[in-house]
Amino acid sequence: RAEDVHIQHDAQAWEDNYILKLEGSSFLRIQNLTFDALNAHHCNILQLRGMVDSLYVLSCEFNGSDQYDASSGGIIVLSKQHNFHHEFFINNTFRNGSQTMQLNLTYSPSFPGEFHLKNNRFLHAGYQPVYFFKISYPVIINNYMESSAYGIYLGYATSGLKIENNYIRAPYGSGISIIQSVLPQSSPGLIDNNFIVCNNDFTNRDAVHLYSSDTIDFFFNNISMNSDNNSYVPFDCQYGKDIGLNYTHFSNQVTA
Questions:
Q1: Whole-angstrom distance, CA of residue 16 vs CA of residue 44
Q2: Nearest Cα to Cα of residue 108 among 160, 177, 185, 186
Q3: Helix/strand/coil (H/E/C) assignment for every residue in 77-115
Q4: How far is CA 5 from the centre of its chain?
Q5: How far is CA 17 from CA 4, 5, 23, in A?
Q6: Could you read off the pLDDT of 221-253 as tens digits, one per residue?
Q7: How far is CA 7 from CA 4, 14, 33, 46, 63, in A?
Q8: Using one digit for the tens of pLDDT, what is the confidence trace for 120-139?
Q9: Could you please report the per-residue DSSP string of the chain?
Q10: Would you say 199 and 226 are in contact if contact means Cβ atoms under 8 Å apart?
Q11: How far is CA 211 from CA 59, 73, 178, in A?
Q12: Rounded CA gap, 145 and 194, in Å?
């Protein structure tokens, strides 16, 4: 059980701001562990560098400190110059931190570049739970995400995309943002059966935003906004083509 083994660290500077660093380490399974970052500002827990392939992170708890901005020192799972074929984060719980997971790749990963994020809980992410840049094939399924600001950001998905059956609470908007992701006609991206809530009275982004992205099906989603700002809408698509939009419920409950 994860509660039986705790690994704790009170980082004092950027140089020691991690509990576990994997660099050029593949075919690893990390399971049933609890990681506690004790410093109020430095709470990186897992750092990934170089080729870290076939990594399984299963049924672990990651506890950061309360963060209310996008500070890089508060990111719980952080990658730098990272590469992989397949990675899996399944049945984990993440608490606090600024961004929960930031995989910001300089180059697209080795084919197929699949990253599986399934059945996880993201509790009180200070800025946003997921920021993926140049992950070729993100698979985000059955997650519970609650944030103080925003939700999922994906940039440059190319060979596949699946976001389904997630609960995403992003008070200020951007429950899902997909940027410059062009999917093949033979394998359209799929965003389906998600429940997205943007419930702050002063929402400052669209609930769902697609920009310069092609060949994505958006089916059976529920999107709820509660905003006084008429500049932002439940669904916004700019410079995209072949976007399928069906069986989706939109609610924009503007307050008095």
A1: 9
A2: 160
A3: EEEEEEECCEEEEECCEEEEECEEEEEECCCCCCCCCEE
A4: 26
A5: 24, 20, 15
A6: 999 988 766 778 889 999 999 999 998 888 876
A7: 10, 19, 8, 12, 10
A8: 999 999 899 999 999 999 99
A9: -GGG-EEEE---SGGG--SEEEES--S-EEES-EEEE--SS----EEEEEE--SEEEES-EEEEEE--S--GGG-SEEEEEEE-SEEEEES-EEEEESEEEEEE-SSPPSTT-EEEEES-EEEEESSEEEEEES-SEEEEES-EEEESS--EEEE---S--EEES-EEE-TTS-SEEEES-B--TTS-EEEES-EEEE--TT--S-SEEEES-EEEEEES-EEEE--S-TT--SEEEES-EEEEEES-EEEE----
A10: yes
A11: 34, 29, 6
A12: 11
Q: Do the Cβ atoms of 133 and 112 come closer than 8 Å?
A: no
Token duo for residue 130 = 């997921």
Amino acid present at 183? L
Residues pairing with 63 in the sheet:
36, 95
Contact 163, 152 (CB under 8 A): yes
> Residue type at 152?
I
Which pLDDT value is given to residue 12?
85
CB contact set of 228 (below 8 Å; sequence gap of 6+): 201, 202, 254, 255
pLDDT of residue 2: 67
Report whether pLDDT(103) > 60: yes
